[in-house]
Amino acid sequence: MKSKVDFINENTTRALMKLFIPLMLAMTLTMAYSMVDSLWVGNLLGEAGMSALTASTAIVLIMNSLSMGVGNGVSVMIAQRVGAKNTVGVKRAAAVVMIVSLVFSGAICLVGELASEYLLTAMGTPAEVLTEAVSYLRLYLIGNVALFLYMQFTSIFRAFGDSVFQMKGMLMTVIVNAILDPIMINWWGFNGVAIATVISEFVCLAYAFAYHYKKKWFSFDFKAMTWEDVKTMGRLCVPTSIQSIMPALSSAVMITFVNPFGLTALAGYGVVRNLELIMFMPTNAMSMAVTSIVGQCKGAGRIDRAGDYCKKAMLTGGVLIGLVSALVICTSPILSGCFGQGAEVGVIVAEFFHIVSIGYVLYMLTSCIQGYITGIGRPEKAMLLLIAYYIIFRVLPALMLKHIFGLSGIWFAFLVSHILACVLAFVLLQISDKIFLKPVKNT
């Protein structure tokens, strides 16, 4: 069983880059995919359309994050078996992943359809855009089943060291969505955005099946599935799912804090969240790369190399995100205009990025440590780190600071969470992982 990149024997920096660069390109396309809807809605439907999209996509982000979170657990599950050269175990695990994912995503779709209006109302969605937001969410949930299954394919391929699939799949999705958005908006108005998204997601899933049929990196052994494999998937995927939804869940809560400040503030936060995708792009890619690589190293009994990979990731990622952050901070007022928003929204966006600034570098360091802890098979510790990050360190300060500084106080809460979470991440390593603290070998 040979992976495309030899994480165990190849130079760590070179092997890391071979996985990280294609993943970052895939994340760039993911960013583009997420921003396409906002660009078309902002320019064709104005501030009201952007506000409706912002309100509904808070829950969409939770759904997307859940699929990625399950995928991170799946990646660890498969990668450890790939590293241990357990071909039979990979076949069983792949079958379990597909069956469980289909049942789980179907259940999520059904619950979401029934609870959409209640959830958006509870979040304080303005009455002027509630109907549009509910309609968008209900349509989107249909495509979420396809997206969920697609993300599990990407995670399995990534566990083998194949990151090209995710890049190609996202490129196809971006192109389809970008072409369909203006057409569907012209035909069905705001609902057309969701219809275009659903179509693009099913196209992406079809591509996943075609890619699997061509490459045959693994096969599914449905007859050999065991409850032990299901339990293993649950043990890994439940903590990674909670990890992954924390940012999106926190974002949904933060929207309830922003809503009382009016449609302009909500539209500004919608632009902020889209521009933040630029910062999250390299960070998420590096975290996923570290998780998959460390999983293989752990399966092969080379935990020393796992620590080396994480250190290289923090150094490379920290420098990269620093440069990207500086670029976005300097150009944020101009970039906000690309979404068809006025000067007032631009002021809100610029203030956010000037306050948060250095927080994105700290976010990169924290995410690398999170990926390392998850990859070695301790997702529950990474889960606790993320709960502290996005609930204790962000929501609670926002709850207090908004009464003192208004909307700016909410922005300050983001910076506070980045600082405190980074400190906690390094403390967790100091306490629990002596292997990681050993000097890096020249590998």
TrEMBL record:
<feature type="transmembrane region" description="Helical">
    <location>
        <begin position="252"/>
        <end position="271"/>
    </location>
</feature>
<comment type="similarity">
    <text>Belongs to the multi antimicrobial extrusion (MATE) (TC 2.A.66.1) family.</text>
</comment>
<feature type="transmembrane region" description="Helical">
    <location>
        <begin position="315"/>
        <end position="335"/>
    </location>
</feature>
<keyword id="KW-0050">Antiport</keyword>
<keyword id="KW-0406">Ion transport</keyword>
<feature type="transmembrane region" description="Helical">
    <location>
        <begin position="194"/>
        <end position="213"/>
    </location>
</feature>
<feature type="transmembrane region" description="Helical">
    <location>
        <begin position="93"/>
        <end position="115"/>
    </location>
</feature>
<dbReference type="GO" id="GO:0005886">
    <property type="term" value="C:plasma membrane"/>
</dbReference>
<keyword id="KW-0813">Transport</keyword>
<dbReference type="Pfam" id="PF01554">
    <property type="entry name" value="MatE"/>
</dbReference>
<protein>
    <recommendedName>
        <fullName>Probable multidrug resistance protein NorM</fullName>
    </recommendedName>
</protein>
<feature type="transmembrane region" description="Helical">
    <location>
        <begin position="48"/>
        <end position="72"/>
    </location>
</feature>
<keyword id="KW-0812">Transmembrane</keyword>
<dbReference type="GO" id="GO:0015297">
    <property type="term" value="F:antiporter activity"/>
</dbReference>
<feature type="transmembrane region" description="Helical">
    <location>
        <begin position="16"/>
        <end position="36"/>
    </location>
</feature>
<feature type="transmembrane region" description="Helical">
    <location>
        <begin position="347"/>
        <end position="372"/>
    </location>
</feature>
<dbReference type="InterPro" id="IPR050222">
    <property type="entry name" value="MATE_MdtK"/>
</dbReference>
<feature type="transmembrane region" description="Helical">
    <location>
        <begin position="384"/>
        <end position="404"/>
    </location>
</feature>
<dbReference type="GO" id="GO:0042910">
    <property type="term" value="F:xenobiotic transmembrane transporter activity"/>
</dbReference>
<dbReference type="GO" id="GO:0006811">
    <property type="term" value="P:monoatomic ion transport"/>
</dbReference>
<keyword id="KW-1003">Cell membrane</keyword>
<dbReference type="InterPro" id="IPR002528">
    <property type="entry name" value="MATE_fam"/>
</dbReference>
<keyword id="KW-0472">Membrane</keyword>
<feature type="transmembrane region" description="Helical">
    <location>
        <begin position="135"/>
        <end position="157"/>
    </location>
</feature>
<feature type="transmembrane region" description="Helical">
    <location>
        <begin position="410"/>
        <end position="429"/>
    </location>
</feature>
<keyword id="KW-1133">Transmembrane helix</keyword>
<dbReference type="InterPro" id="IPR048279">
    <property type="entry name" value="MdtK-like"/>
</dbReference>
<comment type="function">
    <text>Multidrug efflux pump.</text>
</comment>
